Amino acid sequence: MGHFGLSFTGIAAMCFSFFVVTAAVVSAEAAGQGLSTLPYAESPDKHFHPRGKPPSVHTLEVIRKARETLPFADRRDFEEAEKGFIAPLKSKIIQSDAGPTAWDIQRYEFFSEGRDFDSIHPSLQRQSTLNQITGLFEVIPGIYQVRGLDLANITFVRGETGWIVFDPLTARETARAGLELINATIEDLPVSAVIISHSHADHFGGVRGVVDPERLAAGKTEIIVPRDFELHTVSENVFAGNAMNRRLFYQYGVLLPASPFGHAGQGLAQNVAAGAIGLLPPTRVVEEPVEEFTVDGIPMVFQNTPRTEAPAEMNTYLPDQKALWMAENVTSTVHNIYTLRGAQVRDALVWSKYISRALFLFGQEAEVMFASHHWPRWGNDRVQEVLKDQRDQYAHLNNQVLHYANQGVTINQIHNVYEPPKALQDGWTTRFYHGSPQHNSRAVIQRYLGFWDANPATLMPLSPQDSAPLYVEMMGGAENIMARGRALHDEGKYFLAQEILNKLVWAEPANQEAKNLLADVFEQIGYQQENPGLRNSFLAGAFELRSGIPGGASPNTSGPDIIGAMSTELFLDFIAIRMDGKQAAGLEVAINLITPDNGEKFAIEVRNETMTNVEGFLHENPDLTLTINRTDLESIMLGQKSFIASIEDGSATAEGNVDVIGQIAATLTTFEIGFEVFPGTAREKVAGDLTPYAVADESSYIRGE
Ligand SMILES: [Zn+2]
């Protein structure tokens, strides 16, 4: 080793922690790892932040108008959410096996008080009120759901010998609670199969809470997944993991307390469980576009729907029960085409087409439709109504946005131009509690045309910190901007106010008065949003401008299941991302890595300030050849052991110059979660310590199980 302190163990630990958080939490379409740390707000009537403001008269007007115009007389969602109720949750709070709270839906009980909150858009309040209807429910005889234990539902189908579980939630603890509830209430049965609908962690992470390893080993429990499931469970979110984790603070409002002034539900459900995330290899993969086979005596038809809500996803139809499981392709919201925490955009057209196929394959006769979030739909008319409305909304997004784009509307305008179909907005089947018309419409343009609007002035613009001082100077300085900003704020012209105040904050990061006023503006915009991702983003911005952001703490969890699913190539690629090119200038190293037990070999090369690897090839004259079984490499990937220790104990063999490991390690950066989104918002740069509640345990912002 060189004289630098870093070792490959540390690298692996870092690598791994991103991994768990990104793979298991972010890719969950969800990220309430903050749930375990979100404090209770003191009272639903009191703002949790000393600088917080109530809704303004202008916001009250938006809220009032929504109350008057939305179709609240249509109560079918409430009837469906309450239908088939059998038993309440045993507890609304679940401890994790490791100690901290894994789940707490009690903190959202203010939604059950039957009150109207003027700081929450009435449509969002309605959705969160529906999501607060929890417990064990019968879908039809033999099919049951537990709702309110996590972001997703856990569903049980009575098989010939045991329970067939659809989607075992995010965490072992919450999945186990679901199984215990049904076993105690309906019938005490073993789990005969687990059907995982897609590659997001809120649908598989709790698998160890329902699967008995002995039964699995004995072949008595099946685990059935869609095509390419394993490929996508961990691959989607590794490379930009730290940036995605940071952005979760916005989309999911990780620092906001559950409160009418803060986190007011996440649309898909109230939040995501924290707890132990696991992953078990499938016993059967549905490979064909449509496949029919029997699971524990129940005939099922599986429909793969790749590249929809997840890259690997499938619907399931139970023909004997005329019951259609729509995974997360059709729930009681329009979903994300673009995910605000950052992700590759999805394909609204493909999504729409797969809903069409389900409609024609199964929807002509299905008598009930149920899904991994929200409540079922009963009766063929209702099933068809929801399927068609959802199909049309995704198609409309794709078609209408491109219709405008082909006439010159750009990514910087489309969100102010695109409107969902009027008839759909007059109902509740396709409102926007996950995707929003604004960010989804921009996503469609992003998919086809990318970030540039074809105006050269926006092609390679100045960075905000470089352009802002000129704006401030030309506007006559901070005082002028503050005066105008305050006037615009008072007139309710929040989008105009944010335009100029944002410039001032970028030009004068130490100007706390400016940050506070921008925060006030963001807060009102946030209150007015129906979409929780938009609401949280504005309220999170307000929070960080007022209080600063917590210091950087990296996740420290362990999860061999997830590492086991991570390819060696992905591991090496991520190390290359951590390499600081400037630090690696002049370094030229060639390494062969051989993992005999899985037959893989890699030619790794550091050259021109970056690291590359290619699978299936070896250098003729490497500086170092490392040979280690993949099973042993996993303890290095987990951060439990270093390469050097592995060489010393004989689990790895090294030929050549071992010092190159230290040379590479010395170039690697440890990414910190707490980087600034707004300048001047690192905790120590915010004037006045106004943190409204303890943030001592910063590591818990990121879930460590
Ligand atoms: Zn989900």
Question: What is the strand and helix layout of this fold?
Answer:
Layout: H1 8-25, H2 57-69, H3 76-82, E1 85-87, E2 93-95, E3 101-104, H4 122-131, E4 135-140, E5 143-147, E6 154-158, E7 163-166, H5 172-185, E8 191-195, H6 213-217, E9 222-226, H7 229-235, H8 241-251, E10 284-286, E11 290-295, E12 298-304, E13 314-318, E14 323-325, H9 348-361, E15 368-370, E16 377-378, H10 380-405, H11 422-425, H12 437-449, H13 464-474, H14 478-491, H15 494-507, H16 512-527, H17 532-547, H18 560-564, H19 568-578, E17 589-595, E18 600-607, E19 610-615, E20 624-628, H20 630-637, H21 643-648, E21 652-656, H22 659-665
Parallel strand pairs: 7-8, 8-9, 9-10, 14-15, 17-20
Antiparallel strand pairs: 1-4, 2-3, 4-5, 5-6, 6-7, 11-12, 12-13, 13-14, 15-16, 17-18, 18-19, 20-21
Helix pairs in contact: 1-8, 9-10, 10-12, 13-15, 14-15, 14-16, 15-16, 16-17
The structure holds zinc ion (ZN).
The site of zinc ion has 10 residues, from loops.
Question: What can you tell me about this protein's structure?
Answer:
By secondary structure, the protein is α+β, with helices and mostly antiparallel strands. Helix content is 35%, strand content 14%. It is built from 22 helices and 21 strands. Strands 1-4-5-6-7-8-9-10 form an 8-stranded mixed beta sheet, with helices on one face. Strand 4 (135-140) and strand 5 (143-147) form a beta hairpin. Helix 14 (478-491) packs antiparallel against helix 15. Zinc ion binds at residues 29, 151-152, 200, 202-203, 268, 328, 372-373.
